[in-house]
Amino acid sequence: AKRLGRNTLCFFDPSMQAALDLRSTLETELRQALKGGQLRLFFQPQVDVARQVIGVEALLRWQHPQRGLVPPGDFIPLAEENGLILPIGLWVLDSACALLKAWQKDPLLRDLPIAVNVSARQFRQPDFVAQVQHILETHATHPGRLKLELTESLVLEDVEDSIAKMASIKALGVRFAMDDFGTGYSSLSYLATLPLDQLKIDQSFVRNLPGKKNDETIARTIITMAQGLAMEVIAEGVETEVQRTFLEAHGCVTYQGYLFSPPLPLEALYEFLRRSNAV
Ligand code: C2E
Ligand code: CA
Ligand code: CA
Ligand code: CA
């Protein structure tokens, strides 16, 4: 402890200081990353029972000059706290829409939708709807090819605001998926009132299929619920053929996971598509 003035004791914890230093370094570097083009999108294929690619999810990576490829879990929480998630989120949306536009010329890519993750802070911006509309118009993107992934907790945090914004964006032709479905506390009554196109079964329920009775029940219930509400259902985190078989047997016919492919850089995605969706 270091004495400051007469009665003030200030306890200096070096590990805490180190953590604070790392944070501010990370923040400075993240600003540079955004300006300097170090952010990259990877794309994870979403496939049907015939292993045809029916869509991709855009997943953010930071190509750090020293640290290499940094996963989103290592910088998105900080970006959400300091607000950098707003320009980052716009960059992701803009990049996805620009790609969708470019893909329209290629028969292999033309019908492929891109799913983009939206953070709560980004979605709660009063002008979020206008931002989405503006980006779609800038690139003259087919809105039906863009899918926004919202989590249950995001929607629940302000249901009124969520429903209003979703309805406006839906009216533009954009589609919605409920990400990590089953991990929040959605009530059935409002689930039916949301303009959702797809439920994504969270990977935590897929991991122990088949065998873990509770997870089997949850997975089956989500599939039944999606069918009843005329929504698509996709399972994420599918790593084994037995998981896939269980899901198919219970009516889930679209999948995302390492069994098919990890998230890929663009060139590798094109290669993957050439092999699986040959035209
Ligand atoms: P998420 O949206 O639930 O994305 C799925 C995560 O599961 C991805 O991690 C993906 O690489 C991983 N994954 C895919 N298949 C498998 C599998 O078979 N097994 C296992 N164990 N994992 C699998 P990733 O890319 O590290 O992303 C983590 C999270 O970061 C995402 O979770 C999403 O919440 C967030 N995120 C990613 N990109 C963005 C973005 O552009 N904006 C925002 N706001 N969040 C993003
Ligand atoms: Ca997602
Ligand atoms: Ca997810
Ligand atoms: Ca997740």
From TrEMBL:
Domain EAL, first and last residues per copy: 23-277
Segment of the intact protein contained: 705 to 983 of 988
Domain of life: Bacteria
Name of the protein this chain belongs to: Diguanylate cyclase (GGDEF)-like protein/PAS domain S-box-containing protein
